[in-house]
Structures are given as structure tokens and as C-alpha cells.
Amino acid sequence: MGKPVPVRDRLMAKVQIADNGCWNFTGAHSATYGQIWWNRRQWLAHRVSYAIHVGPIPEGKQIDHKCRNRSCVNPDHLEPVTAWENANRAGMPAGTRQRSKTHCPEGHPYDEANTYVVPKSGHRQCRTCNKRRSAAR
Fold first, then answer.
1. Residue 64 carries which DSSP code?
2. pLDDT tens-digit profile of 114-126?
3. Which single residue of 25, 37, 68, 97 could bond 45 by disulfide (Cβ 3.0 to 4.6 Å)?
4. How far apart are CA 87 and CA 81, in angstroms?
């Protein structure tokens, strides 16, 4: 068995550099992001690129593509940001995804009669599920 190929070499072997400076990852992809094996598990290629070219990803941060190209692994196009900032930059204002939900995870409707809004946070809770949890306690 041959000597293992370093992750940097494996990553860069699957990169095509575009005219706009993006390093497009041509290897395996999940639904939207490139993936590569590193340390015996599969990682998102842009996170690996950031880690090996820049350094560790700060705790609690996500890696945002400043170029908006999800296949790009150019460390100059990647930036650690909060989840809120990442969603906001992507055009998804905070809370949009949650507010678009019409039913709780158990399938009960978020309607006027079945929805409790927590005063301090504004989060919605299903009254039916809250009653079931209370009864179980």
C-alpha cells in the first residue's frame, strides 16, 4: 500500500481555477457543497480549504462564501461568520425559515388557536404539544 496523499494535495487536485478567482471544487458534492475525506470522516471541502490554508475555524462560526459560489474553495473568498450573518448575506433574514413553517414538527397547525408566542423571545410553540408534554410530566 502506498503512502497516503496529504489532504491539501487531494483537495487541490480537484480544483479548477476560474477567471473570477474562484477555485471550483470538482470532486464529490452533497446537495450543494463539495466534500472530501479528512481524518477518517467526510468534510465540506470549503471548510477543509479554510482550515489548511488559513487555520482553525473559530468556535461558533460558519464559513461563508464571499463570492456566493458554493463550489469555491479559495481561502481568499471564504470568511468565518456567525450563522445569523451567513443567512443574512444569503438573502435569508433571520427568522424567515422559522416563520415560513405552518405546522409544528408533530404536524399540528401553527394557527391562532394552537400557537403560543413566548413573550420575551417571540418564538412560537404548539399548544397541543405543550399540553402533551405537561401531562407526561
1. E
2. 999 988 878 899 9
3. 25
4. 10
Domain ranges of the chain: 7-89, 101-136
Residue 131: exposed, middle, or buried by beta-carbon count in 10 A (0-12, 13-18, 19+)?
exposed
Rg (CA), the chain: 21
- Give pLDDT, residue 86: 83
Contact of 66 with 86, CB cutoff 8 Å: no
48: its cell numbers: 477543509
The answer to whether 74 and 12 have CB atoms below 8 angstroms apart is: no
Instruction: List b or e across 14-52, with b for residues whose CB sees 16 or more CB atoms inside 10 angstroms.
Output: bbeeeeeebbbbebeeeeebbbbebeeeebbbbbbbbbb
Q: Give the model confidence (pLDDT) of 72-107 as tens digits.
A: 999 999 999 988 788 778 776 656 667 777 888 888
Supply 109's cell numbers: 397547525
- How much is the pTM? 0.66
Instruction: Name the grid cell of 4.
Output: 497516503
